[in-house]
Amino acid sequence: MGSLKEVRSSIEEAYKKKLDRPRIIVGLGTCGMAAGGTKVMAAIETEVEKLGLDVDLDFTSCIGMCYAEPVVEMGLPGAASVVYGGVYPEDVAQLIESHMVNKTPVTDKAEIQISAGGATYEGIPVMEKSPYYEKQVRSVTSRLGRTNPERIEDYIATGGYAGLEKALTMEPQEIINQVKISGLRGRGGGGFPTGTKWQFVADAVGDKKYIVCNADEGDPGAFMDRSVLEGDPHAIMEGMMIAGYAIGANEGVIYCRAEYPLAIKRLNMAIAVAEEMGILGDNIMGTDFNFKLRIKAGAGAFVCGEETALLNSIEGKRGMPRVRPPFPAHKGLWQKPTCLNNVETFANIPFIVRNGGDWYASMGTEKSKGSKVFCLTGKINNTGLAEVPMGITLREVVFNIAGGIADGKKFKAVQSGGPSGGCLPAEQLDLPIDYDSLISGGAMMGSGGLVVMDEGTCMVDVAKFFLNFTQLESCGKCTPCREGTKRLLEILERICDGLGVPEDIDTLERLAKTIKTSALCALGQTAPNPVLTTLRYFRNEYEAHINEKRCPAGVCPELLTYAIVEDKCVGCGVCIKACPVGAITGEKKAAHTIDASKCVKCGACVPKCKFDAIVQA
Amino acid sequence: MAICKCTGEQVESPQDVQLMELLEHYREYDGALIPVLQGAQDIYGYLPGEVLETISKELKIPFSEVFGVVTFYSQFHLKPRGRNIIRVCLGTACHVRGGSKIFEGLKEILGVDNGGTTEDLRFTLESVACIGACGLAPVIMINDDTHGRLTNDGLDKILEQYE
Q1: Any residues with CB less than 8 A from the CB of A373 and at least 6 apart, and which?
Q2: 4Fe-4S ferredoxin-type domain: from which residue to which, for each copy (chain A) (predicted)?
């Protein structure tokens, strides 16, 4: 292909025509499929065929409203398209009849409507004004749920590869300058200025340089990289190609978690079609720039998210971190200068090149520019993916976008930054979300997972959960991480089992600080964070476990006791049958009792009692 | 290579042929070991000792290094596995939404522990740190299918779909 300009206008025209046709689009990201999206798709196909409708059927990725999955969008020419949530196969016939045949949207199933300049329907929130999207700014996520990720035409028609086209007319140094002006910082969590990193690699001496994309998103509670990989694979490739041109590399590797099979499939498809069209390969768009790209699937090791461990893994070795310096910018993959960035960082690049660094820097705070994609999970009403400007407060995210705490319970903490992050309490809800504020609060940005916890979560148990994770995932190369996290975990387990002693708190603190300063890589250096922040904000829970042998949230089984409230018990005997060890006794129609010495605290009796007579304390 | 019980000769199974093709493809490739091990595991379902020896010899990588890599990564397996692999997510989002109860439930239904395979080789059960479908927690993955928003009551029905 000579220039993309020649084909772009015809692709754009075809895309516009597509929007002038009646269409039904099903969200088929991993989350959509998990909620049953494929079955909904099949039901739609059957129904459309049965009615003989002239309708385009298509699929897209995750629009971000995971709470509403399975999601189906229906659109008619000249009108806004309506996104329906919670659509199951049994709803399909009625939805199609009402929306596609009678042209009347089903308001009570509609989540939002997306206007493309046409008329809008009454009674359905417009996307930009709906509670979930109102405070969001969608750039990296702008194509998610809007285009078919398996078709390069959709990508090009929505401005794709225009950034690369523009970059190829610029001087490499000018691109690096724009990235510097943008203020973009590494979205993997470290927050190192991207432009500065690029400059290091560009200035490094080497006959061969590499671009590596870290798509080994392993933080429990974070899935933004998966969503972008599945929903907009070309954007990552475009970002990597621009990086390659800017720093003088002609080879790139995407290191993707093997747990993301759909992402790997769509990336493979995207690479193949881009090569076919001359966007990837030799003499890209008729210039002298060559770039080839391959995918390396991970093999299951959390530590491979650490940059030097990731490089070892690509080289076919055990994924253990290397001592730095030398940094990858100077000696990375195969000892050559390597520019290693995260998925979301690369996905931002085409927008920055197209719109200029100043445009990007106009969003966010002084030291954290632009937008950041967060994954909202845990005990909230609206779980999903949200792209917000840096500097927005935790409160706005939890209570406005995520819709507050589920089941009418009380907010307790928000866990940010995965196992390396920390738990922030209600007092910190007005903290602006940016790299430096989160660190000052004791947590960190991490890749962007926000797990919200309610009053039913035990913070000692949460710390134990994370330590169990990091202890299992420690590669074992350095002693502080290998032995230290194990000892931390042992102490936490003892406390949860009711065997804690008052000295434990001091030991935990001392050990945590030692590991933080002496571990080899970021995994070990940040592993104690969950312990340190829970001790900082929820010390009273540790004290209750140790001194009063009580778990205030009612989670740690060894510290629970069950009792029957005499006034409420009618003596029906259901709990006696439910108890597997015969700890409950009592005459018919008289209040029963639980023998604490026999009770194994399985809790089987609680849901069986229709009178809420069994309490745990 | 298998040894024929009747003649005592070495015979090549169709899987061995596939392995040789795989090795041929990756011979000149930088960092071939992990992709080859992944491919070999796809072919055999797990990584038998003889296969590791063949890989070591063909790629000219010391056996100790091959074994070191296999035991480092959680996705490589040295023992036969079930036809269907159940991965129970125990990530943070699933943890706070009761993922461990699902895990306990599956252990009870299948009668195996973490990493265990049922006697009829129908299922292997294992826990994973995060599948990345946190919005639908608690979640499990069977082979490449993800099942979300689970409750213990629905588990039997899901398992029925897998032979």
Answers
A1: A140, A141, A187, A224, A227, A228, A344, A385, A386, A387, A448
A2: 560-589, 590-617
